[in-house]
Design goal:
The chain is of the alpha+beta class. It has two domains: about 110 residues, Arc Repressor Mutant, subunit A, CATH 1.10.10; about 120 residues, no CATH class. Helix content is about 25%, strand content about 25%.
């Protein structure tokens, strides 16, 4: 299997833009664009998004993004993979007004993110592109976010490294967790420690490399845990995804 472009095995560099602590909101913020508003609300829920994702998901081109940066709606940063520069964006001080955060915005919140935190958020949006017309919802840790689909949330957890944070959450804070859940992983083998717990979850699994494809049939994206305790492709299963996605 080819290495995921989001793998921690790559040599990454993280380059944050820091905003002065005394920066003020503008007296007037133009929030009339529906495309911008939808993107800013999604960004407020998740924290970071890729520049290419803003174009693909919300039709915001480079010229529009440059203007949004100047208007302090978003803040531009970079991650480097070897010699490749990938622009990423966080929510700006004027963007939080449009997104309706109601004064809970923290300037430079992004500097606490490590490279794995950024990759998790980018992978969330890689999955989100397969749920057009859905809405992004904020969630607590260890989830990257949730997707409002068919009237109910689907929580999204991304594996980068170990899965201890999810195991601890399910053991203590989430003992009664009964929500639909999608786990994104670079390889199915990384989910070995989750198998026992996964038996009680409304769970589907997606693999990084599959999220790059333009797949119309959602079933082709996912794996599920069968009766023998093995993750198998959804297309190998008779029927459909039942109450979880369909």
């Amino acid at each position: 299997m080819s290495t995921s472009p989001f793998s921690l095995s790559h040599q990454w560099g993280l380059h944050w833009t820091r905003i002065p602590s005394n920066i003020k909101r503008s007296d007037f913020v133009n929030g009339e664009s529906p495309k911008e508003r939808k993107a800013l609300e999604a960004l407020a829920a998740v924290g970071v998004i890729g520049g290419a994702q803003l174009f693909r998901l919300f039709s915001l081109d480079k010229k529009r993004l440059k203007r949004m940066v100047a208007e302090k709606k978003i803040v531009r940063h970079e991650i480097h993979r070897k010699k490749q520069i990938v622009p990423i964006y966080s929510l700006g001080i004027n963007g939080e007004v449009i997104a309706g955060l109601n004064d809970c915005y923290e300037s430079n919140y992004w500097v606490e993110y490590k490279i794995e935190d950024v990759l998790k958020r980018l992978l969330f949006f890689q999955l989100f592109q397969h749920f057009p017309e859905s809405k992004v919802l904020p969630t607590q840790e260890p989830f990257s976010g949730a997707i409002q689909f068919q009237g109910k949330p689907i929580y999204v957890y991304v594996v980068r490294g170990d899965v201890n944070d999810l195991l601890m959450y399910l053991k203590w804070s989430g003992k009664h967790f009964n929500e639909r859940l999608i786990i994104i992983t670079e390889s199915i083998r990384h989910l070995q420690p989750l198998k026992v717990t996964a038996e009680t979850l409304k769970l589907r699994v997606a693999v990084d490399v599959d999220l790059r494809d333009d797949i119309e049939d959602l079933q082709k994206l996912f794996y599920f845990l069968d009766e023998s305790g093995e993750f198998i492709s959804e297309v190998e299963k008779q029927g459909n995804m039942g109450e979880f996605v369909m």
